[in-house]
């Protein structure tokens, strides 16, 4: 019997029967214990970079090679350069300059610009707390598990400002540029222990004619509050002005989407830590340019 479409009905039935037999003969996923079926995802070949890599040998091998290189460099350095050790300690003679260990020279250098309680307690506390809060404040998912600069420019540049500029550079200054009396000496200049620098440091309220402690404290406090208010406004406007699909942002919606995911609490903490860090540079600039000693002056604390 011929098919109206021009085909052969028996032949079509035979093909269907053959297809059904092939389907019945195909291996089925074996049921797991308890009657449950396990589905195993198949990874396509040639899909490019793998999403996950094993720690061994990919990461551990690179770390081991880098540690060997660092050990070799330090060994050669220690064998070729003598350690800058001084003579035995003498209780009747105080060295000039009296310097802290190199890892504390950054704090000692900040004593030039800030009150001891602020340079030795408040700023280090900000650093420690800020480092602890980074995992909770940083919501950029890019760069997680791999190294990149293009996708994390804000984060890396902020870290370099805080670590390289405000910490490592202070250690370098305290080691090589501070001589007797903690005066500034350029490389090659003789460290004269009798050198005296004539500096007239004044407080910011004094420049504006304030002579009373209460008025000076209120004026200095108002300046600090105004700095943070203006800084928050500028920081908010700058983040909100980020365009859509900004290559420096992980959110396609730009600054508005970033602020929405960030939230007011994380934005406030991040802005405070960032403005406090920038405030160190502002205070240093005021000291070098205008010989400003303190901004807020009280009988108890000075900033």
Q: Count the beta strands.
A: 0
Helix content: 40-55%
- The end-to-end span amounts to 104 Å
Q: Which class do the helix and strand fractions yield?
A: mainly alpha
Q: Can you tell me the overall shape?
A: flat
Major β-sheet annotation: none
Describe the structure.
With 303 residues, the protein is mainly alpha-helical. It has a domain at 98-290. The protein is built from 8 helices and no strands. It has helices at residues 9-25, 55-80, 105-110, 116-137, 153-176, 204-207, 213-240, 255-290. α4 runs antiparallel to α8 (255-290) and α7 packs antiparallel against α8 (255-290). It is flat and about 85 Å long. The chain starts with 8 loop residues before the first helix and ends in a 13-residue tail after the last helix. 7% of the residues are buried.
Question: Nutshell version of this structure?
Answer:
This protein is mainly α. It has helices spanning 9-25, 55-80, 105-110, 116-137, 153-176, 204-207, 213-240, 255-290.
Secondary structure blueprint with pairings:
Layout: H1 9-25, H2 55-80, H3 105-110, H4 116-137, H5 153-176, H6 204-207, H7 213-240, H8 255-290
Helix pairs in contact: 4-8, 7-8
Keywords for this entry:
single chain, 8 helices, flat, 303 residues, 0% strand, mainly alpha, disordered N terminus
């Amino acid at each position: 019997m011929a098919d109206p479409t021009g085909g052969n009905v028996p032949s079509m039935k035979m093909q269907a029967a053959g297809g059904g037999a092939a389907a019945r003969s195909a291996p089925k996923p074996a049921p797991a214990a308890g009657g449950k079926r396990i589905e195993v995802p198949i990874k396509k070949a040639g899909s490019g970079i793998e999403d996950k890599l094993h720690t061994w040998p990919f990461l551990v091998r690179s770390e081991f090679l880098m540690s060997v290189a660092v050990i070799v460099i330090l060994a050669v350095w220690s064998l070729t350069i003598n350690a800058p050790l001084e003579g035995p300690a003498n209780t009747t003679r105080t060295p000039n300059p009296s310097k802290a260990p190199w890892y504390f020279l950054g704090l000692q250098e900040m004593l030039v610009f800030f009150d001891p309680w602020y340079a030795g307690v408040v700023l280090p506390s900000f650093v420690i707390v800020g480092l602890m809060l980074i995992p909770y404040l940083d919501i950029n998912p890019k760069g997680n598990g791999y190294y990149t600069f293009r996708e994390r420019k804000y984060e890396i540049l902020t870290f370099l400002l805080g670590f390289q500029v405000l910490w490592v550079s202070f250690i370098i200054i305290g080691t090589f540029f501070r001589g007797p009396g903690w005066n500034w000496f350029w490389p090659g200049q003789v460290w004269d222990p009798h050198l005296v620098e004539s500096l007239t440091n004044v407080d910011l309220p004094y420049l504006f004619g304030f002579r009373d402690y209460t008025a000076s404290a209120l004026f200095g406090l108002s300046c600090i509050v105004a700095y943070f208010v203006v800084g928050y406004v500028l920081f908010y406007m700058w983040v909100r002005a980020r365009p859509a699909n900004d290559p420096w942002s992980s959110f396609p919606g730009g600054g508005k989407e970033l602020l929405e995911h960030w939230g007011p609490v994380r934005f406030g903490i991040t802005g405070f830590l960032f403005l406090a860090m920038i405030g160190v540079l502002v205070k240093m600039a005021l000291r070098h340019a205008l010989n400003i000693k303190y901004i807020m002056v009280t009988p108890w604390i000075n900033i």
